[in-house]
């Protein structure tokens, strides 16, 4: 028996000669079945191609020639149809014993017992099948199956070039990739969206299969392996991956596969058989997929999925297609699909065409979700196995309200969805009418409603929503979207533009908050050491105080931008009073410097802090008198209070903003700050949800800074509330809290006729 390399090499050499000949496509196919049959010592070799939704016998050696272009099988019918439907290989010693066997008398195949077939795949779709048969009952050797897989790859290129199939025909795709499907996940950002599926990291389409220079292809793979291993090692050294637990296990598995000599040897053997580097990787990947289908152990199956993911990475490297879909540009209304995203990656996309995001992971308070909410983009997270259920270009209906995605929807469903879309627009139009309406409760209490922002493009939302100002301007967004550290002049221009756009409405600038999942590639901190928990590590004000040059530059830019106006500046993640004092001292030193330079200074500077770390609550009696304002960041506060990583998929829904622990903590902060007259604002995502906002008002909080899209709904809610009633109810609930406070608050709201949906 020939080795796998020699067998495939011999077949490829012959096929290369056939493809180079001037004969027509049918003559080439006729010659190809002879080549395969002769080299594999098989009595039958047949090629079926997809035409008009049916698998038609195009060429055969060993079956009746009269059956050519006569025998046709539906996708899913018979052994050939099963291979195409499932995009899988069959290797049977007794074909008739298989439950999907379908006898076709015109072929004369009744005397053949053994059968093996592999799909011919083009652009992730089965467009045909190549099969061999033998009189004697026997399973084909693995080397023969690998040779068939190699042939199938060459055939995919041949039939595409010869236009023997309709490249737009999807009938050869498995049913789970053609018919309508519904996927469920977790609502991260509410809203409705329609668009075409676009993968953040697009699949690589292999155009050339047969190698012209084997050694050159081998060197390409060697270089790709080196680069891939460097990437994996670099990932392991970066803080955002060094959180222990599952991330660590994934990286260790990646390392194991990346340095697996068996994997690289199999790819090299495929290259030796005459394949290009891309085709060799894909050939070995096909073998992996076959093994995945035979694995019942979910843990082992996950490990094989890891290898699949790593193979895709290697394929992108060797093909030079390293960019994301953002770098390629969106061609139309798009729904972005990714395992996870960083905020900077999301900001790279064209906001006019990006309509929705679907994540395999994700959590409510991840920074990418905050950015998406600010951009008004619906997000559904924790949707598993997306790549196995959605193809590039599929039509998707994203229901961010229910956490549901409809894939390849039927026309009737699209029509119903568009009707909902229209109602949603009507609702948004109604909320837009709240722009000039004062957020005053039924008992006459004026509530301050501001917006969160972070980009120059966010500023038009201020007049559109009628918000009272910007309660949180995230200055780090400018750093995230920049390839290099933004210079002082550039920062100053942004801050001045924001203040100009705000007019007489206040803007609270939060100093740069980097670290955690907001790592800047051009600013490595912590001496390159791996942090086991970056969310609770060297980030935000801790970084700014260590790198005082960073904070000094920002301080000067803010002070100069606010010349002649009031500057509101807030420090993030203050843990102890001395940190606030140190940060304020940096600003005051810049004020002194600019005064000496005869520069125009701000009319006043108001200093504030963010309460995100629970430890600060123990020092409010010391700190509050020094503050002009205090803002509660409920996103980070929740994860620190519960010791629950907000980006961890298993913890995403475990801890509730309306839990007794959160409500009691916030009530305590309100009580401790009140004697000092310090303005208290909630600027986390909690305030932008109607039921949670109702609870916050009940706690005595009268200042909210929320996403622009939530301003209308929250204003409407405020006008239906009697503040005295909700505060009395909340006082009772806090004295004897129920385990499910969410239901308690919701039932009370319903009884009062308050809509909190």
From TrEMBL:
Protein name: phosphoenolpyruvate--protein phosphotransferase
Classification lineage: Bacteria, Pseudomonadati, Pseudomonadota, Alphaproteobacteria, Sphingomonadales
Keyword Nucleus included in the entry's annotation: no
Keyword field: Cytoplasm, Kinase, Magnesium, Metal-binding, Phosphotransferase system, Sugar transport, Transferase, Transport
Cofactor: Mg(2+)
Class of this enzyme: transferase
Entry's localization field: Cytoplasm
Boundaries of every GAF domain copy: 24-169
Pfam families the UniProt entry points to: GAF, PEP-utilisers_N, PEP-utilizers, PEP-utilizers_C
The organism of origin for this protein: Novosphingobium capsulatum
UniProt record similarity statement: Belongs to the PEP-utilizing enzyme family.
EC number(s) recorded for this UniProt protein: 2.7.3.9
PANTHER family: PHOSPHOENOLPYRUVATE-PROTEIN PHOSPHOTRANSFERASE
Keyword Transferase: yes
Catalytic activity: L-histidyl-[protein] + phosphoenolpyruvate = N(pros)-phospho-L-histidyl-[protein] + pyruvate
GO molecular function: phosphoenolpyruvate-protein phosphotransferase activity
């Amino acid at each position: 028996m020939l080795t796998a390399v020699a067998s495939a090499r011999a077949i490829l050499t012959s096929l290369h000669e056939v493809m180079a000949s001037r004969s027509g496509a049918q003559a080439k196919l006729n010659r190809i079945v002879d080549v395969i049959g002769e080299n594999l010592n098989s009595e039958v070799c047949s090629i079926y191609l997809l035409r008009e939704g049916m698998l038609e016998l195009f060429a055969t050696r060993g079956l009746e020639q009269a059956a050519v272009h006569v025998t046709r099988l539906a996708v899913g019918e018979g052994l050939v149809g099963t291979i195409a439907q499932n995009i899988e290989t069959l290797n049977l010693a007794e074909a008739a014993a298989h439950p999907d066997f379908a006898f076709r008398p015109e072929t004369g195949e009744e005397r053949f017992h053994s059968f093996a077939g592999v799909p011919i795949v083009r652009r992730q779709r089965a467009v045909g099948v190549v099969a061999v048969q033998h009189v004697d009952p026997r399973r084909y050797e693995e080397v023969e199956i690998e040779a068939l897989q190699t042939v199938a790859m060459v055939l995919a290129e041949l039939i595409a070039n010869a236009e023997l199939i309709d490249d737009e025909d999807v009938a050869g795709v498995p049913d789970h990739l053609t018919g309508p499907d519904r996927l469920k996940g977790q609502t991260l950002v509410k809203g409705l969206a329609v668009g075409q599926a676009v993968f953040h990291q697009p699949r690589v389409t292999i155009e050339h299969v047969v190698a012209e220079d084997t050694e050159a292809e081998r060197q390409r793979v060697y270089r790709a392996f080196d680069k891939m291993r460097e990437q994996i090692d670099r990932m392991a050294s970066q803080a955002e991956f060094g959180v222990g637990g599952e991330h660590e296990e994934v990286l260790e598995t990646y390392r194991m596969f990346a340095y697996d000599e068996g994997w690289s040897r199999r790819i090299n053997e495929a290259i030796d058989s005459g394949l290009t580097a891309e085709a060799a990787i894909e050939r070995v990947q096909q073998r992996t997929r076959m093994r995945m289908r035979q694995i019942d152990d979910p843990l082992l199956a996950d490990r094989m999925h890891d290898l699949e993911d790593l193979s895709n990475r290697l394929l992108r490297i060797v093909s030079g297609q390293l960019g994301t879909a953002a770098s390629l540009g969106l061609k139309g209304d798009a729904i972005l699909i990714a395992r996870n995203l960083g905020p900077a990656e999301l900001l790279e996309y064209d906001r006019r065409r990006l309509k929705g995001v679907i994540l395999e992971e994700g959590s409510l308070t991840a920074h990418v979700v905050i950015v998406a909410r600010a951009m008004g983009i619906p997000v559904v997270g924790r949707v598993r196995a997306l790549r196995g259920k959605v193809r590039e270009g599929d039509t998707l209906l994203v229901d961010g309200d229910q956490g549901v995605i409809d894939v390849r929807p039927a026309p009737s469903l699209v029509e119903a969805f568009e009707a909902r879309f229209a109602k949603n627009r009507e609702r948004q139009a109604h909320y837009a009418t709240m722009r000039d309406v004062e957020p005053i409760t039924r008992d006459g209490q004026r509530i301050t409603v501001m917006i969160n922002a972070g980009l120059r493009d966010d500023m038009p939302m201020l007049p559109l929503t009628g918000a009272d100002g910007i309660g949180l301007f995230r200055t780090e967004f400018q750093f995230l979207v920049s390839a290099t550290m933004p210079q002082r002049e550039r920062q100053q221009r942004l801050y001045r533009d924001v203040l100009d756009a705000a007019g007489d409405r206040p803007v609270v600038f939060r100093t740069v908050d980097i670290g955690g999942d907001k790592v800047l590639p051009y600013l490595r901190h912590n001496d390159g050491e791996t942090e086991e928990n970056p969310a609770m590590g060297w980030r935000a004000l801790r970084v700014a105080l260590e790198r005082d040059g960073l904070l000094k530059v920002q301080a000067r830019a803010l002070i100069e931008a606010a010349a002649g106006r009031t500057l509101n500046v807030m420090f993030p993640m203050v843990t102890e009073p001395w940190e606030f004092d140190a940060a304020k001292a940096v600003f005051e030193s810049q004020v002194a410097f600019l005064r000496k330079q005869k520069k125009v200074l701000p009319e006043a500077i108001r200093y504030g802090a963010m309460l995100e770390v629970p430890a600060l609550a123990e020092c409010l009696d010391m700190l509050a008198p020094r503050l002009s304002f205090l803002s509660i960041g409920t996103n980070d506060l929740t994860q620190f209070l519960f010791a629950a990583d907000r980006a961890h998929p298993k913890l995403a829904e475990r801890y509730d903003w309306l839990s007794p622990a959160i409500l009691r903590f916030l009530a305590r902060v309100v009580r401790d700050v009140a004697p000092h007259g310090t303005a208290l604002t909630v600027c986390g995502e909690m305030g932008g949800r109607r039921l949670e906002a109702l609870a916050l008002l009940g706690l005595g909080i009268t200042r909210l800074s929320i996403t622009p899209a939530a301003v209308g709904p929250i204003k409407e809610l405020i006008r239906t509330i009697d503040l005295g009633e909700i505060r009395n109810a909340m006082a009772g609930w806090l004295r004897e809290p129920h385990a499910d406070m969410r239901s308690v608050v919701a039932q009370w709201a319903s009884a009062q006729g308050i809509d909190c949906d």
